[in-house]
Amino acid sequence: MAKMQEGGDHHDELTCRAKEEDEQEEERARIDIYKYVFGFVEMAVVKCAIELGIADTIECHGRPMSLKELSSALGCTPHNIHRIMRFLVNRRIFKEIKNDIVNDEGAGTLYVQTSLSRLLIKSGERSMASFVLMESSKPMLAPWHCLSSRLKAEVIDNSLTPFEEANGQDLWSYTAANPGHNQLFNEAMACNARVTVAAILDSCLEVFDGVGSIVDVGGGNGTAMQLLVKGCPWIKEGILFDLPHVVSVALKSDRVVHVGGDMFESVPKADAAFLMWVLHDWEDKDCIQILKNCREAISEKGKVIIVESVIENNKEQNNGMKKDELEFKDVGLFLDMVMMAHTNKGKERTLDQWVYVLHQAGFTRYNVRSIKGAISSLIEAFPI
Ligand SMILES: C[S@@+](CC[C@H](N)C(=O)[O-])C[C@H]1O[C@@H](n2cnc3c(N)ncnc32)[C@H](O)[C@@H]1O
User: Fold this and answer.
1) Which has the least CB within 10 A, 27, 69, 274, 359?
2) Are 220 and 246 in contact (CB under 8 A)?
3) Distance between CA atoms of 235 and 350, rounded to whole angstroms?
4) Does the CA dihedral 41-47-52-53 come out positive or negative?
5) pTM of the model
6) Distance, CA 350 to ligand 1 centroid (Å)?
7) Does ligand 1 lie within 6 Å of residue 224's CB atom?
8) Ligand 1 site, residue 243, Cβ cutoff 6 A
């Protein structure tokens, strides 16, 4: 009897705990839903902060700034800047410190930079400002409004992507027709290129051993090529290869020649082909075509160097990863959604999916390295 009583108590305790957990989950959900209701606000306010030049202004000032100093430098009212800064401080983008020196402005709060706010400075090696401005620009935001309808329509009508539906043409034709957007897009890619190539040179330099010439296929405005050639002085020639409207406005650098063309037709010859954030824009059959053209371009002793995300299919595969590695993997899933909205069937790939396209394109050997401090991995693929 006593045993039955004990069992009953245990059951009650478990039911009570389960109820409490359900209530906590409900409460969490009621808070979390607002992240999605107002999810766009963070992006919009950060865009506004970049356009106003808040981080540039504090950096130029050289020391923490009061509200009065900051609003007068920005040409805005203190009331509005106070509200913007309160939001950005709350998001830990800027920091507030107390000013106890009583000067003619009186005691008060001073705004200081953080590592994150410095990434919003408009220029410099670590700037991510153009990337934020590009992703938050009208042509890049408009396709998100068409995502669900296009996903349904794709079953019956394959003709338009969300980007095409929103902007009337695909991303590459749109950049060709809009020089301002072409520049913004290329500068945005350069933000990622600066960080990623520096990390590659730091952690995978040996990948470029013995490479005398290299072609950067879909190399954008030439930032990656410039950094690679500078970081590997043994490379005699770098070839920046992209669509004509992109190379015609690209950076000029020593030991780098510019070639405009179409990677679906052919790729200029070199010891190695480098492809960063290019293949994820395309579906498998297109990737196989691009990779076959790269294979034609390199000698039998050459290689293809691919810099892209390698995403995992399920959470279990992430077990044992450090927190920052997990967060980088998360960015890969965000990028996968961006590919859905902005490209024609582009996607981020799992290792199995990468192996499939490489084998189909005739690459028999490969190895994958993670790049410390970058969201992409590096895949080296060899024809024999
Ligand atoms: C996502 S961007 C990556 C740029 C650069 N690799 C980087 O990571 O900074 C893709 C690039 O592919 C180029 N591209 C698109 N279609 C192309 C084609 N048919 N032939 C050559 N380049 C192309 C685009 O112009 C763009 O610069």
Assistant:
1) 27
2) yes
3) 31
4) positive
5) 0.91
6) 21
7) yes
8) yes
Ligand 1 touching residue 279 (CB < 6 A): no
Q: How far is CA 49 from the centre of its chain?
A: 19
**Which residue has the CA at smallest separation from atom 14 of ligand 1?**
218
Question: b vs e for 235-259, b when ≥16 Cβ sit within 10 Å of the residue's Cβ?
Answer: beebbbbbbebbbeebeebeebbbe
Q: Which CATH class is domain 189-382?
A: alpha beta
Task: Report the nearest-CA residue for atom 13 of ligand 1.
Answer: 218
Element spanning 138, H or E: helix 138-141
CA distance 248 to 242: 9
- Given phi > 0 = left and psi -120 to 50 = alpha, else beta, which region is 75? left
What does pLDDT average to in each consecutive run of 10 residues of the chain (384 residues)? 64 84 93 96 98 98 96 97 98 92 64 98 96 98 94 75 95 98 98 97 96 98 98 98 97 96 98 98 98 95 96 66 68 95 95 97 95 94 94
DSSP class of residue 66?
Answer: E
Concatenating the DSSP letter of every residue in 260-280 gives E--TTT-----SEEEEESSGG
Among all residues, which ones are annotated catalytic? 280
- Decide if 370 contacts 351 (C-beta within 8 A): no
What CATH architecture is 50-119?
A: Orthogonal Bundle (1.10)
Domain definitions of the chain by residue range: 50-119, 189-382
The answer to whether 236 touches 214, Cβ cutoff 8 Å, is: no
